[in-house]
């Protein structure tokens, strides 16, 4: 199995559950592998000492550029359904694989299905310069939210002292905006204990905001490595974020068999 070129496919939770239902009906011999991210990242885990043709194929797949990039983005681990006579599917789930294991027989989909169907409380922080949208989702329901805006001067192009004056004003406006957003974060999420925090925006804003927010500092370890795509931080983007949060990445390698 050489030169893996299969592209990643983003799949909704409902679509992936349909794939798992289809796999569960198969009776061919499969190897099902559940791979935890911390162990994969550290070079340990079940693949370290395992052997056999299918293990080499899985290792090669995980090392391929498209799979490696997606795994680094999600940092949740992977699940592989591997057959020499039927399908080969690799899934990078939206939430972390809790424990590792190798199973032989029909595809063992139960742990992944339970991971997808579990009701979770997650927090969403979306911030762009001049706008923010905050929300708490319990399951798929938006239980708490707050949106707002703040004026920030656009870049001044005249040059000289005027440009420097406007640049200083813009920096002060950004600092004031982030302080106000941090206060809203602390107020909005007070009393909630979520499993994860998802951020939409650039890392520069997140780092600055974390410095201002007690809530983000105390929950730094629960901030997902995955960044949500957001152009404008508003209620519409917030409502749409839960689908992105629950989206997985799937690689169907069935046609790459040798």
| Helix/strand structural class | alpha+beta
Distance between the termini: 6 Å
Helix-residue proportion: 40-55%
Number of strands: 11
Quaternary arrangement of the chains shown? single chain
Low-confidence stretches: none
Strand content bin:
25-35%
Average pLDDT figure: 88
H-E order: EHEHHHHEEEHEEEHEHHEHE
Q: Strand order within the widest sheet? A: 1-11-4-3-2-5
Using the CA coordinates, give the radius of gyration.
22 Å
Report the principal-axis shape.
elongated
Q: Describe the biggest sheet?
A: 6 strands, antiparallel
> Helical element count?
10
Quick tags:
258 residues, alpha+beta, five-stranded mixed beta sheet, 11 strands, 41% helix
Structural overview:
The chain starts with 8 loop residues before the first strand and ends in a 6-residue tail after the last strand. Strand 3 (78-82) and strand 4 form a beta hairpin. By secondary structure, it is of the alpha+beta class. Helices cover 41% and strands 25% of the residues. It is built from ten helices and eleven strands.
In short:
With 258 residues, the protein is an alpha+beta fold. It has ten helices and eleven strands. The protein is 41% helix and 25% strand.
Could you outline the blueprint of secondary structure elements for this entry?
Elements (H helix, E strand, L loop, with lengths): L8 E3 L1 H12 L5 E6 L1 H6 L3 H4 L3 H11 L1 H10 L3 E5 L5 E5 L8 E5 L4 H8 L3 E8 L2 E8 L2 E9 L10 H29 L7 E5 L2 H10 L1 H5 L4 E6 L6 H11 L2 E5 L6
Parallel strand pairs: 6-9, 9-10
Antiparallel strand pairs: 1-11, 2-3, 2-5, 3-4, 4-11, 6-7, 7-8
Helix pairs in contact: 7-8
């Amino acid at each position: 199995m050489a030169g893996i070129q299969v592209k990643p496919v983003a799949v909704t939770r409902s679509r992936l559950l349909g794939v798992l239902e289809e796999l569960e009906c198969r009776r061919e011999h499969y190897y099902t592998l559940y791979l935890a991210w911390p162990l994969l990242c550290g070079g340990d885990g079940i693949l370290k000492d395992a052997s056999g043709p299918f293990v080499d194929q899985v290792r090669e797949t995980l090392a391929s550029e498209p799979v490696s990039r997606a795994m680094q983005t999600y940092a949740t681990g992977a699940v592989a359904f591997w057959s020499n006579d039927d399908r080969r599917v690799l899934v990078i789930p939206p939430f972390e694989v809790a424990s590792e294991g190798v199973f032989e027989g029909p595809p063992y989909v139960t742990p992944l299905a339970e991971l997808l169907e579990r009701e979770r409380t997650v927090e969403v922080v979306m911030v762009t310069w001049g706008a923010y949208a905050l929300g708490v989702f319990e399951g798929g329901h938006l239980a708490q939210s707050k949106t707002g805006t703040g004026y920030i001067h656009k870049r001044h192009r005249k040059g000289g002292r005027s440009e420097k004056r406007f640049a200083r004003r813009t920096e002060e406006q950004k600092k004031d905006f982030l302080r106000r957003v941090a206060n809203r974060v602390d107020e909005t999420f007070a009393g909630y204990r979520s499993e994860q925090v998802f951020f939409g925006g650039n890392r520069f804003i997140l780092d600055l905001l974390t410095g201002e927010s007690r809530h983000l500092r105390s929950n730094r370890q629960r901030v997902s490595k995955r960044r949500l795509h957001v152009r404008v931080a508003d209620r519409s983007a917030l409502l749409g974020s839960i689908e992105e949060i629950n989206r997985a990445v799937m690689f169907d390698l069935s046609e790459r068999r040798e």
